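Review form for a predicted model. The reviewer records the input and the model, then writes brief findings.
Reviewer: anonymous (R2)
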Amino acid sequence: MKLHLRLTFLLISLFCLVSDVCTAETRIAIVISRQIQPYMTVVHEIKTGIDAVCYEYNLNGDKKNIRKIIHEILSKKPDIIVAVGTEAAEGCSNNTMGIPTVFTMVLNPYILNLNMSGVAMDVSDREQMQILQKILPKAKKIGVIYNPQVSSSLIAAAKKNQGNISLIASPVSSVSQIMPVLKNILNQQIDAFWLIPDPIVASQSMAKYILETTLKANVPVIAPSSSFVKNGALFSVSAAYDKIGKQTVRLIHRILSRGVSRVSIEETEYPVLTINLKAAELMNIVIPNQVLDLADEVVR
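Model under review:
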C-alpha cells in the first residue's frame, strides 16, 4: 500500500513538472528609468495586460546602474525585456544578448539609434497643427525654439509637413540663449509658438518663462503635454500614459507570437487633446464648439 502511494505521488509529481514546463509562463523583465507616475502607469498596464512573471528593475535615473541590472536580468532568462523611459532604453540598447527588447515612453527615439522596437511618446506635428488651424484658421507663422542636437529631425520633418504654415525655427545650444531668441521670434509677429519636448526648451524654469512671456505678448502656445496647458498654454496634443501602456502590451504580444526580435517604432495611437479655455479668453481667442467636442480635457 505504501509502495502504491509512493508510486502515485511520484507520477503526480512528474506530471506536474512536465505540465509546468509545457505551460511555463512568459517571463518579462521591466527596466524603468525612474519611479515616477507616468512610467508606473505603463508598468501597471503591462502587468495587467499580459499573463506573465514580471521582474522589475529601477535605474533611478542613472544609466551607470544598467550593467548590474542587465547581469541580473540575464540570469532570469526572460522571454522579453521592456525598457521604460529614455535612460532605460539607452542602457538596454545593444546590451541584452539577443533577448527581444522593446522600449516605451521615449521621446524622439529616432535620434537615439536604439536597436529595438518600441512605442514613442511623440505625437505627429501634423496633428498638432491641424488642431491649431481649426482654432486659428488664419495662423500662418509659427515660432519654435529647438536644440539641433536633440530636435533637428523633428524640425526638419515639421517643415515638410506644414503646407501653408511658415515655421520660424530658431536653434539654441544653451538655456542662456533662449531669452534673446524668444524676444527675436516674438518681434517677427508670429501667430503661435510651438513648445516642443526638447530638454533645453521645455525644462520647468524655461517653460515657465516662455509661457509667461508669450501670454504677455498675446501669443498662444502649442504645448507637448497637458501639464503645460494647465500652466497657461492654449492646447496640447499629447500621449496618454495608460493608452501607451496598452499599445506596448499589443507590441509585446506581436513580438512574442511571431518569435521575432525587432518590429518597428510606433507613435502613440490615441493622442489626447487638452484645451485651456482660460488662456483662450485672456487672448480673446474663441475655441469653436467642434474643437471643444474633440477635447479629452478642458481647463477652465
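Findings: The longest helix spans residues 2-22.
Further findings: Residues 203 and 254 are 36 Å apart (CA to CA).
Recommendation: see findings above.
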